[in-house]
Amino acid sequence: MLLDNHGRRITYLRLAVTDRCNLRCFYCMPEDGLNWLSRTELMSYEEMLRVCELLVKMGIDKIRITGGEPFVRKDIMQLLTALSKLEGLKELSLTTNGVLTAPHVAELKAIGVRSVNLSLDTLDAGRFFAITRRDEFANVMDTMHELLKHDMEVKINAVVMAGKNTQDIIPLVELTKDLPVSVRFIEEMPFNGDGHSYSGVLWDYVHIFDEIRSVYPDIQKVPDPQYSTAYNYQIPGHLGSIGVIAAYSRTFCGTCNRIRITPQGTLKNCLYDDGVLNIKDLMREGKSNTAIVDALRVAFNSREKDGWAAERKRMENPNFHESMATIGG
Ligand code: SAM
Ligand code: SF4
């Protein structure tokens, strides 16, 4: 069992495979993109596989592939297929914007992926363009239907942004009436890649829930699965369910079971820290598996208590402007 210095079990790795993306969601990156990582700065698939293998042996049993957009990295299915064969890994999943995903759904299912998180902040094509700066709404909807056709578990991630898409909350909730999807509303976090930060969110998890309850007063709380970051709900008679994720308010740190690895191989113990160890560098220095496992254990033994403590530490570096595309969400 892999435990951190606060006695929390670590079981879940989120691996960002690229910083590149075919959308430009304004809450994630500037319109002209990021200063993209070069090929040599990125971890290779061999390096990713090696570190995943070590982590699974240490106690990780769930891996989520994310990015940037996973499907813009060449041959991503090769990595997913290799990961799906890791002994001891119970769950392999991914988070995608759905632009290029539909043609891969059958193969994802064949290699054992059962659940996909699809990012979709609005059901209005015009607002989709305003948020993502790309005209790809139809492709994302195709992906959603293709996933459902293949009986995949579909979680829809919708970031709630004051003045941008709060009118989409109820239409997105209504999607759960006839479709077996889980729509999860996420508080906006300060990771837009341009250094703009803020000291609070207008639409926090309480506000989001109150908005839903004002239209659906009979909404019911359902049990939250172990390690869930979402408060989970259901509306009687609806096929799907609803989640609200306090990503900015950080109400879930006490049971945090997750670690992150960025496309450049940096281990993040917390969404809000600025990286605690570069695993790619260790591998390229020729370190043995034993030495890498030792370094990982040291890192897991110095996890911050919560996202507030991690953020305070990160703020000591005022030039640190991270995009969610290198964190992976
Ligand atoms: N490109 C893929 C996608 O959009 O699904 C995977 C990477 S994306 C960074 C992962 C998740 O982070 C998405 O669901 C996205 O909505 C969310 N995200 C990005 N920036 C965010 C922000 N500033 N606040 C909250 N969530 C954010
Ligand atoms: Fe791309 Fe995902 Fe970031 Fe949007 S949230 S710009 S889809 S990486």
UniProtKB/TrEMBL annotation:
Reactions listed under catalytic activity: GTP + AH2 + S-adenosyl-L-methionine = (8S)-3',8-cyclo-7,8-dihydroguanosine 5'-triphosphate + 5'-deoxyadenosine + L-methionine + A + H(+)
InterPro entries on file: Aldolase_TIM, Elp3/MiaA/NifB-like_rSAM, MoaA, MoaA-like, MoaA_NifB_PqqE_Fe-S-bd_CS, MoaA_twitch, MoCo_biosynth_MoaA/MoaC, rSAM
UniProt cross-references to Gene3D superfamilies, sorted A to Z: Aldolase class I
One Pfam family named in its UniProt record: Mob_synth_C
Enzyme Commission code: 4.1.99.22
Primary enzyme class: lyase
Domain Radical SAM core positions: 5-232
Cofactor(s) annotated in UniProt: [4Fe-4S] cluster
This protein's UniProt keywords: 4Fe-4S, GTP-binding, Iron, Iron-sulfur, Lyase, Metal-binding, Molybdenum cofactor biosynthesis, Nucleotide-binding, S-adenosyl-L-methionine
Protein name: GTP 3',8-cyclase
Organism for this UniProt entry: Mucilaginibacter pankratovii
Gene: moaA
